[in-house]
Amino acid sequence: MAQKKNDTYYLVCETILPEAIKKTIIVKELLKRGEMKTVNEAVAKVSLSRSAYYKYKDYVFPFYDASKEKIVTLSLLLEHKPGVLSKVLNTIANDSGSIMTINQGIPLQGVANTTISVETKTMDIELEALLDKLRLIEGVKRLEVLGQVD
């Protein structure tokens, strides 16, 4: 069955996935990085049947692959201190993310809710790496991915 544009996708924590799906993702990574030359070598290395690999390979992929060439909407809780939002925006820009929208509420009790939509098409790094950088910025109290669109 081929994927359709209107298929529904879910972001699911790896810990609840069946082993066959986890191993399929590992096989795809081994092949992508060139660590294994053939599907036969890769499935043998992770103890996965070829039929299971072919059953799932077109339907599972890491989150960062799903976020390429998309607009990702982030929800942040930022401390109300000078420069915090600026550091967030500069971090995104420094990795060639294109900021589409910014919406920040009035700070209440020392924090402000902020929503930022970022086009990931031209980014120099994977989305997960960018999210890790943003979480490390002093003053970022919370960061969540709200959603993404094509």
Structure characterization notes:
- The protein has 150 residues and is of the alpha+beta class.
- It folds into 2 domains: 16-61; 71-149, ACT domain (Alpha-Beta Plaits, 2-Layer Sandwich).
- The chain has helices at 19-32, 39-46, 50-56, 63-66, 84-94, 127-135, and strands at 71-79, 98-104, 111-119, 140-149.
- A 4-stranded antiparallel beta sheet has the order 2-3-1-4, covered by helices on one side.
- β2 and β3 (111-119) form a beta hairpin.
- α1 (19-32) packs across α3.
- The chain is elongated.
- The two termini are 21 Å apart.
- The model has no long low-confidence stretch (mean pLDDT 87).
Separation of the first and last Cα atoms: 21 Å
Structural class based on helices, strands and sheet pairing: alpha+beta
Enumerate the spans where pLDDT stays under 50 for 5 or more consecutive residues.
none
The quaternary organization reads as single chain
Number of helices: 6
Strand numbers in spatial order across the main sheet: 2-3-1-4
CATH superfamily of the largest domain: ACT domain
Shape: elongated
